[in-house]
Amino acid sequence: MDSGQVAEALPAAVETPGPRRSRSLYPALLVVCSLTGWEAGVAFFRIPPYLLPPPSRLLLKIVAEWQRILLHSWMTLQVVLVGFLLGAVFSIVLAASLLRFRGLADALYPLLVSSQTIPKVAIAPLLVVWFGFGPTPKVLVAFLVCFFPIVIDTLTGLKSVPQEVIWLARSMGARGWDTLLKIRIPAALPNIFAGLKVASTLAVVGAVVGEFVGSDRGLGYLLIQANGTMDVQLDFSVLIVLSLMGVLLFAALELLERACLPWHISQRVAHGESRR
Amino acid sequence: MLDVRAITKRYWTKGGPLVALDGVSLSLVRGEFLAIVGPSGCGKSTLLMGIAGLDAPSAGEVRVAGRLVAGAVTDVGIVFQRDVLLDWRNALDNVLLQVEMRRLRREDYLGRARHLMQMVKLAGFEDRYPFELSGGMRQRVAICRALIHDPPLLLMDEPFGALDALTREQMIVELHRIWQDTGKSVVFVTHDIREAVFLADRVLVMTPRPGRIAATVTVDLPRPRNLAMREGDGFSRCVGRIREIFEQYGVLEKA
Fold this sequence. Notes:
The structure holds 2 protein chains of 2 kinds.
Chain A: H1 3-8, H2 17-44, H3 55-64, H4 66-100, H5 102-117, H6 120-131, H7 136-159, H8 163-171, H9 176-212, H10 219-228, H11 232-260, H12 265-268
Helix pairs in contact in A: 3-11, 4-5, 4-7, 4-9, 4-10, 6-7, 7-9, 9-10, 9-11, 10-11
Chain B: E1 2-13, E2 16-28, E3 33-37, H1 44-51, E4 59-64, E5 67-68, E6 76-79, H2 91-101, H3 106-119, H4 135-147, E7 153-157, H5 165-182, E8 185-190, H6 193-199, E9 202-206, E10 213-218, H7 233-248
Parallel strand pairs in B: 3-8, 3-9, 6-7, 7-8
Antiparallel strand pairs in B: 1-2, 1-4, 4-5, 9-10
Helix pairs in contact in B: 2-3, 2-4, 6-7
């Protein structure tokens, strides 16, 4: 290396390990404080357990019924995953098609947007009528609820490639496919992940909504049961498990994002800092 | 090598038609280094994109190596003002993008890519990502990318415009060296008169919008050139002539 290179060489910019450790401390601390406050509040104000069960009771309930809860969680999880994956694949393909075929985009876009305003709770019974009581209507509800943010975010990402890059690709004689696969989609990955993360939580909601209508399994079904028998503790327990499911899915996507996008500025720079 | 005949580029804006280029003609001989110098907005980038077949002119024709340009020209290497490297590929892979997009075998060009990076003094940085490289280094990667498929023609649109003055000096010396070693035909667009005179055989002086070629200044300084020549009389005379033309057109104020 000559002097010119030494002068220009920059250290690779990565997050230092120190701050990361304390970053997971904050949410953990908040959860512990909230649970403690909840427990203390229930005891102090003498709230009856059939109105607001304290965390200790819920823990006991979950432990006591763990097999039942696990079984139904697994049912719901399958629905969530299939609906989400369907949504992901469908949305990315749709977004790429909308980009390529402008006429399709003009025709389909208003339809897409208006479809989102229809409450899926209303559609779910219809889907049961059409597809029976199996997993299909639930997967479809999860899919319908979660695909839209992925389409919009993916389309934005695909369109956001600078003009010079496209010109460069054309001057290289690149075919449409290659430009899409090698340039547009990798460039859109940060946006796609944003859409996927939002969609993951929606997929959980969708699966549960699907299970409300005509189901004999899953956490949605458990919720209906709990409400029917006024089993508030079961109610809360299921809600906790559902949140956990959503959080885990989201976290899994964040891990995947970190693995796929080490080069992107969102992964390189810690909040508030400014590095290259 | 290159024959541009009376190309005109018109844009339609809210205020009416805007003429970016007005009947611009030029020609380039094989192996020649041609600089186009002009103020911002004079259409020099539009001219270059018209030559590249990326931004079709409203009238006139362009011929590259005798063939009429009707779409994107692929037997060319382009360097833009922004380095346009792909952030998710390392330096070597960015250079090899040129090869991959042409559906050529990567393995066949690996050696050449490494050699080019060595030539621009980036040996050892092949696995670095763009965010780990400075502006000058990224632009050098872009130059390698423009050379790897050995095109006869290089189009450069203010490639050093985004760099600081010190890096720019290094880069024009390197570019001169690369051109001497490879013998390519180059069209080099810049707003920097001294840069143009240092590098080129001929300098085309463009007027502000609508862009026309005001004059052609031949630079008859000996080759190979070195930075010391910039203090010499020959150099000053060329720069002076170009400045005179710009003063005539109101681009520069009379000194």
